[in-house]
Amino acid sequence: MAGLKLNNITKVYDNSYKAIDDFNLEIKDKEFVVLVGPSGCGKSTILRIIAGLEDITEGKLFIDDKCVNDLDPKDRDIAMVFQNYALYPHKNVYDNLAFGLKIRKVDKKIIDEKVHEVSKTLNLEDLLDRKPAQLSGGQKQRVALGRAIIREPKVFLMDEPLSNLDAKLRVQMRSEIIKLQKRLKTTMIYVTHDQTEAMTMGDRIVIMKDGVIQQIGTPNEIYRNPKNVFVAGFIGTPSINILSAQEFKSLLKLEVEENLLVGIRPENLEIIDGDDIVISVIENLGSERIIHLEKDSTVITVKCSEDREFFVGEKVSLRVKNEDMLNYFDKNTEKSVLI
Predict the structure, then answer these.
(1) pTM of the complete model
(2) Domain architecture of the chain: domains with CATH
(3) What share of the chain in percent tops pLDDT 70?
């Protein structure tokens, strides 16, 4: 397995569009790193640069301390799993798994041993004779993973591999990929636009916007101490409440400097008796409710797990549960004043 270093990576296309701007990241051997951000932020471009499918305009990429800028994709010892599975429709599961080894002229006996070992790991043993058209979405994804695993590469790259699956299967496959990475003890770089995937899967998360890294950290570090308003709003469901000093005082009767914005997570708010804020929407999720409240033109969201009944149109008040959990941002730069 391998560690990676991306030093001052910049990618500019022929039309002068800068997709990646001065990207710096060091990934340890056996680490699971998730690149996350909105569409067009450059996360898939970084994955393609690591794979050798995109040239680097400026900067250097190291795998195991060796600069690989000019190394062909086939010589980087990297396996990539795509969103669309990329299985051969005319080949059965066995031959899809074996294909990469066959073209490397690996001995047939070794191929057979590896196919059965990987199929056992991924619960594909009963599916080896089936064609892709006979498989479910989750089964196809496991075959795609198996085809990458069987090569025993230094690094696994995954580009939104679960986005074509339904919600329940995505949760199941998330768990399987996490367990697989721990079992294989491999370096894995995973790209997604889904912040829930990022928070639940990564040892560290790299949040990107417009080709620029916004923050790198563990899920807990980023959730508790976002470096700017973008990161604060991108991570967390439902999204963090960002209030001006005036709104903060009006809604919560607390003072803050005028040049600051205040970030309050919905779970850090409590609805109490009062008559200054109106409940406008209640989302009942069973174990919890997401309650939206309005005052004048300001909307604020609360995550509530208590049994008390609330009604649309009811007038209430709010209080902050823990003031130490508030985030403060400069109103002009939108950067955290706490980091």
Answers:
(1) 0.89
(2) 4-234 (3.40.50.300), 242-330 (2.40.50.140)
(3) 100
